[in-house]
Amino acid sequence: MTSDRLYPTRPILAASVAVFRDGRVLLAARGKPPWEGAFSLPGGQVETGETMGEAALRELQEEVGVKAKLIGLVAPVEVIEREADGRVKHHLVIAAHAARWVSGEPQTGPEAKEIRWVTERDIAALQTTPGLAGILEQAFRLEREESAR
Predict the structure, then answer these.
(1) pLDDT single digits (tens) 123-141
(2) How far apart are alpha carbons 45 and 14 in whole angstroms?
(3) Contact 133, 44 (CB under 8 A)
(4) CB within 8 A of 147, min separation 6: which ones?
(5) Is residue 143 annotated as part of the catalytic site, yes or no?
């Protein structure tokens, strides 16, 4: 983890993506802190000159080897984790997107130690990152609306 992500002097902008395939969404168990082992959406930091959507799709391919087509922005998620003394340990602003699977079978790696395609009902039984359940609820709704068009 780079030093600017731990005890940052500013919020870190990141993007993630809920990829849908056959009524299921792709989740990856984080391979690194913060929240190592918790299921989350593939994603990562937005690079200079890159849109949030581009970042989400790039991170998806880098982390798990999957390509997808964006269907929309779901919502922003802000995660602030503080130490007992009040110092900010992490401050992430994550633009969560929804997308449809295009190609590639997901692979585990250093950032994704386990991968699952899950239904909406499966989510409650998983250990997830903060705010993921609400994001997935919105992403499933967006995917259903897009499918109905």
Answers:
(1) 999 999 988 999 999 999 9
(2) 4
(3) no
(4) none
(5) no
The answer to whether 96 touches 76, Cβ cutoff 8 Å, is yes
List the structure tokens of 59: 């991170």
CB burial string 23-54: b at 16+ within 10 A, e below:
eebbbbbbeeebbeebbbbbbbbbeeeeebbe
Residues 6+ apart with CB under 8 A from 105: 65, 66
pLDDT for the residue numbered 3: 55
Task: Give the number of residues written for the chain.
Answer: 149
59/47 Cα distance (integer angstroms): 11
Summarize pLDDT for 68-125 with one digit per residue, the tens: 999 999 999 998 989 999 999 989 999 999 999 999 999 999 889 999 999 999 999 9
Choosing from 114, 137, 145, 146, which is the catalytic residue? 114
What is the value of pTM for the model shown?
Answer: 0.91
| 40's tokens | 């989350």
Which residues are registered as beta bridge partners of 94?
A: 14, 77
Tens-place pLDDT, residues 23-50: 999 999 998 877 899 999 999 999 999 9
